[in-house]
Amino acid sequence: MSSLQQNTRETGAESVREFDAIVVGAGFAGLYQLLSLRELGLSARVLEAGDGVGGTWYWNRYPGARCDSESYYYSYSFSDELQQEWEWTERYPEQPEIMRYLNYVADKFDLRPDIQLETRVTEARFDEDANRWEIRTEGGERFFTQFLITAVGCLSAANVPDIKGLESFEGDWHHTGGWPHEGVDFTGKRVGVVGTGSTGIQAIPAIAEQAAHLTVFQRTANYSVPARNAPMDPEFQEEVKENYGEIRRKQRESINGHPFDINEQSALEVPEEERQATYEAAWETGGLQFRAAFSDLVVNKEANDTASEFIRDKIRDTVEDPETAEKLTPYDHPFASKRPPIDTGYFETFNRDNVTLVDIKSSPIEEITPKGIRTTDAEYELDSIVFATGFDALTGPLLNLNIRGKGGLSLKEKWSDGPRMYLGLQTAGFPNMFTITGPGSPSVLTNMPTNIEQHVEWISDCIQYMRERGLDHIEATVDAEEAWVEHVNEAADRTLLPLAKSSWYLGANVPGKPRVFMPYAGGLGTYIQKCDHAAAKGYEGFDLTSRAVAAERQG
Ligand code: NA7
């Protein structure tokens, strides 16, 4: 008998299902959380909106979609058997390969019986009297659970710009984060791509190869470093497998979850010639570790200027038309103060005859017409529009769940001036709700699976701690939350990250969203120590009680 049957109680026309824990989302976080809860002996169910597992990788199927972290460490570490038997085929895994991996994990650990697909959560409400959560879905189902664990990802609420006239467009349009599963054939088409973040920078070269003509609408020029993707070297893969213990340790102690070494020297302490040689070598190696070329690139503006200028020179050298090169050169923010993209032939794409760059900062989009996009300068006729315009990051996926905590307070109201969480794991007033990689945790500033695994293990340990002591109620205190929010701000202020005014880390890409620096920039290693410290002190900063015992005493 499956746990679904075990826990289903028919009440009249409605089926009400009770579980110890409900997990929302079946991506990297949801899959591992389910396994971990099962190992504790809890009844758990994952509710997933998509018709398959994969989370962000299920939805982001746009041309060129590929992970920016390297495959051998953008993966689970919890099972040595898994990491030994899985073979990665490329330096950076492409979206279909990550989907194969996550489906393999779902099968290997027999997770599917407890994952309910095509089930979108529309509401979650904490019932104080019953000390449990009630969850409702789009299909009208109701679930009751002691623990609500959100595993909804940080970048899953698509940001489709509200541009006048979109509904009148006669061609087709897609957001990269909700790409049709059957794919989109751009052969012979005039395509417009809006957005030049990590996604646009991956999609633009791939679409340019197919389309008759590609027009790129750029609001903010971006830095990008070559990815240097290549087939996985079997010898390297073998070496990795022999050394996984050390690699995983390094990831968890690092600043951002990547196992690469950061040069201990400052960019300012070496002579110009040596600095350039270091940057050239890092450029040749490619990837996100370009940031590690010197110790101070994300904390010292003067040091950062040398890296930013190096990349600007590379753009000028690569792009043949000087006017286009100048438009593509970023000046408004330091390198890596926004999420740094990595690319395969991005700047080279603008040398193609079938690609045009439109600077919509100087001539903004006025409207979408039946025939295409009209800026203040011209109308561009298009058959297809691709919005690579990012996400309502970090808070969007949580707010979309319509969560109400104690006293009926909605998360939307509580976070009207920006997200407030303790350790990015809990928010005061919302007992027994845990958030995997919530605002205030390192999340998007790190290699996600590393932070996810740490959160899952922390949450499961906490639940086990409660069960062993007969506790059934946990809630972050307001004081701990306040101190953490302050610490998150201080940590960001010690870096150059807040200098990027158009960054989604600050919520600046979504009109009307409060400008608050959301992820924790104090480093993953430091963060893990703080979480472990709180746990070791009996979950310091959280109120843990037994409502059942309290009710008995009162009664
Ligand atoms: P990003 O990094 O938020 O990039 C979105 C891009 O779209 C960026 O260039 C934005 O310009 C542009 N944008 C956003 N809204 C508009 C409107 N209204 N008009 C024109 N241009 C707009 O999202 P991505 O999907 O590329 O990357 C998200 C993460 O996914 C990535 O970092 C990886 O972690 C994976 P702006 O810079 O705001 O001026």
Round the Cα radius of gyration to an integer and report it. 24 Å
Which percent band covers the strand fraction?
Answer: 15-25%
Q: What is the domain total for the residues?
A: 2
Query: Residue share in helices?
Result: 25-40%
* Uncertain stretches: 1-6, 9-13
Hetero groups in this structure are: ligand NA7
User: Looking at the structure, what is the overall shape?
Assistant: globular
Q: How would you state the average pLDDT, rounded? A: 95
Q: What structural class is derived from the secondary structure elements?
A: alpha/beta
Alpha-carbon distance between the termini? 37 Å
Would you give the CATH topology of the largest domain? FAD/NAD(P)-binding domain
Name of the CATH class of the largest domain? Alpha Beta
Task: Describe how the helices and strands are arranged.
Blueprint: H1 3-6, E1 8-11, E2 14-24, H2 28-39, E3 44-47, H3 56-59, H4 80-85, H5 95-108, E4 115-116, E5 121-127, E6 132-137, E7 142-150, E8 172-175, E9 190-194, H6 198-210, E10 213-218, E11 225-226, H7 234-242, H8 244-253, H9 272-285, H10 301-318, H11 322-328, E12 342-343, H12 346-349, E13 355-359, E14 365-368, E15 372-375, E16 379-381, E17 384-387, H13 396-399, E18 403-404, H14 411-414, E19 433-435, H15 448-468, E20 473-476, H16 478-493, H17 524-536, E21 542-545, H18 547-554
Parallel strand pairs: 2-3, 2-7, 3-4, 5-18, 7-19, 8-17, 9-10, 9-17, 10-13, 11-12
Antiparallel strand pairs: 1-2, 5-6, 6-7, 14-15, 15-16, 20-21
Helix pairs in contact: 2-15, 10-11, 15-17
The structure holds ligand NA7.
Ligand NA7 is lined by residues 155, 161, 194-200, 219-220, 339, 360, 388-390, 444, 502, 504, 509.
